Model the fold of this input.
Amino acid sequence: MPEIVSREARLSLLERMLLMRRFEEAVIHAAAKHKYIGRNHLYIGHEGTGAAVMAQLKPGDLAHTTHRNHGHIVGRGADPGRALAEIMGREGGLCGGRGGTWHMTDTSVGFQSTSAMVGGSIGLATGGGFACKQLGQGNVSVALFGDGVLDEGISYEAFNFASQYSLPILFMCENNEKPGRRETSMLAADRLLDIPKALKIHTMTVDGGDVEAVHAAVGEALARIRKDQVPVFIESQIEAWPGSHQHKPEFTTGETDISMAWDTGKITGPHADWIRQEPILRYVRKLLAEKAAAQADIEALDKKVQAKMAKARDFAEASPFPQAEGAILGAFA
Amino acid sequence: MPSEKMLTVKDAILEALFEEMARDDRVCIIGEDVGVAGGVFGQTKGLFEKFGEARVVDTPISEPAIFGMTVGAAMAGLRPVVEVMFGDFITLVMDQLVNQAAKIHYMSAGGYTVPLVLRTAVGVGGNLGPQHSQSFHAWVAHVPGLKVVMPQSPADAKGLMKAAIRDNNPVVFIEDRTTYNVKGPIPDGDVIVPLGKANVVREGRDVTIVAVSRMVQIATKAADILAGEGIAVEIVDPRCIVPLDRETILASVRKTSRALVLDAGHLDYGITGEIAAIISEQAFDYLDAPVARLAAPNVLIPCNTALEPLIVPNEQQIAQKIREMLNA
Amino acid sequence: MARAKAVKSQKAVPNKAAGSPLALYRTMATIRAFEETVQRLFLGGHIPGLVHLYMGQEAVAAGVIAELAQTDFIGSHHRGHGHCVAKGGDLDKLFAELLGKRAGYGLGRGGSMHIFDPANGNLGTTGIVGGSVPLAAGAALTAKLRKTGQVAVSFFGDGVLNQGIMFEAMNMAAIWQLPVLFVCENNGFGEFTSIDDVTAGKDIADRGKAFAIPSEHVDGMDVLAVQKAARTAVARARDGKGPSFLICSTWRFSGHHVGDKQDYKEDAETKAWRKRDPIAQLARKLVAKKQATQKQLDAIADEAKSAVTKAAEAARKLESPTPADLMEHLYAE
Done:
């Protein structure tokens, strides 16, 4: 299924990736400017996966995510100004500034949950799939999670349930582990996919740095999920951003300069290897090579996204902190 | 005191681990990021290098089984210190903690002991939000068969950790991250602080504050404020909430005739209610005012600089409450 | 991914006589007699609470435990009397515990689902599905770290297959190459629900294989087959080669608990399984191979019966715990 052919669709995909990237850069700027900005796990380098998923979800589909969630949320269509305000703890934030980065949700765009606890969302996503099936409106549930979730027993319980009850769920694993790097989170399985396979879940692997490949895999998976009402597990292999384990957001690989796609001489420094293959520049190079866009188109698109983010930043900065009285409200419905 | 060195709470606990691991080769450390990484807060730094991977065990992110295995390892002869990274994650190990660890000694009529320490870090104040800030000390204190330790000073933290490791029961050792960098003197030598023995941190005649963990430090600030107004506050730090040193608390209240109980955890059904009830039942005739309580409101803990400071009672609120008690 | 190196541990050799076919017959006959007596006592109102009988599954406990030394560990489950007997449990103390007498393993306070026998390495029966799986793995961790040469066996029912904690424990046992056997006693039902209704995947063994744990199916009604599989797995564990997963197919003759009418089982299926009664099956084999005469076997069964009857009768006369026993052993000294 849906190979991307139209120029508009391809540029729209790139725009979604750029929005994710520029959003994270705004978070880094805000972190530098303000005393507190929380503990963030930035989505930089994952855009190829998130954009491909979000581009293909329908309005009624349910998404559930994890601590590395910013890209998912804005990629799905949440207002970037309100998302940024949430991260900055402002009243205008998506959750009134209470949840911050780790608990950001936007139910208006079908975002059910973010959980800062490893494995915290996968059970919810499975329940979402159960609801989708029961309600019979053709919607699917998506669980986005990192490879560490497979250490948690709840993921097995969820896979078993999803498989046995044939639930329409996309288990989207963003695997940014390099063998040997993730020292303390360990899986005995030789291949991550052996686990869902053992529970009879259809599995696929895809290069997470190639957004169109992810798009094709996700498209195929979603079609299968909707048609057969079954779960599918996709492992998207991602080359981790060198800054992905930082506690305070910083420009580990610099602010993205889109012209590096055609002016490769600009790529220097200790992380040049990562920059060379990062999903956005890689996609731009592909679009240029296939003449789907000209340099000017790309620059215009980036400008458009940057302008959108500038407005978002203004909104977030202007939004006040919540009133103290609000703190004790909302524990119950 | 010239012979005493100064350490932070975090390093004091770490020193206890070093000493206990050197003293007893059955002591081992199990948990996420405790080995090569040295702990996410640096709380196990250097143990891996000194004692090796056999005794400082990095685990997958599998809290229920990590803890369950710790229980089995303890039954089979180890004395493990298992770490649950954030206090909120204690919910993930509740089954093995409540239904296995706490019950095995009793159900085996003493045949098995389960000598382990579950250490976890809590603490409102890092803007870490609802899943990384809550403390369930009242939950675990409610379970017969568990001991619950909540240190505040470096010397106590070290001496209590040593006692917890040497105890033959499952001990839940709750550290408050906001105290981690508090510095204080550490006595020389192998000094144990026994579990279940309260400490009168400050003596005073007018009112007793009962507080554990970080609340002792906040209470001390409040006592300093009130000292300037001529009010002498006595602060009793039970140090363990199970076993609870009732006698020291009651003796203090009998002396001052007024009691304020503090907790950084939630007010409703929390430890302040338990301690207030004990005082009311056993020292009622000595009281000149109702027992008062200040604790966190029953709400989730927002990840927000404007809202989070409203959770834990501060020194101004404590001072004001005591003024009201004295004027009543 | 970090995988522990194989550490060869010292030998702890099981008693050879304990593993002879006649010894296996005696163990199974003792368990059968024990359970029949428990059933009678329960129906007579002498046993408080609930009891889950092991009748039909005797070959699993007898076959596996015959390969263990007294110092090796087992973790049992709610249907655990068979394991307790096979591991060398004292019949007097077992009946005392079941009957709520002070002389029992737990002062008569625990009953059927809380029997602990440290002298024989029995880590306990448990009322929590999957509760003892990590305990056995943890005991194996101790054995490995302290190089004691001990092996641990985790017995669990098919209901545990869907508990996350089983996967977590298997994963860690595989990473650290712990000397542990995971023995699934698959009797087809978790409480009153068929395993087929709730367990995903083509083959249960895949769940172990996903972690690269040697996993095999064993005829759990054939004690010699169980013993053979256990011998290989125990040897592997003792040699520092890590965990094994044995799935023993079996049948619970007396339902989930005493009083279970078993309306959910097909009569024909039950009849077929009954024909494969592990005790009668072994007897037929031994007589056919002239390794024993029926008379010899009957004598063994009679001895077992009378030992059990004697213990049960004696236990009935014992004293109940006193009120002072209520608070005993809440904390260790």
Remarks:
- The longest strand of chain B covers residues 79-86.
- The domain at 199-327 of chain B is CATH 3.40.50.920 (Rossmann fold).
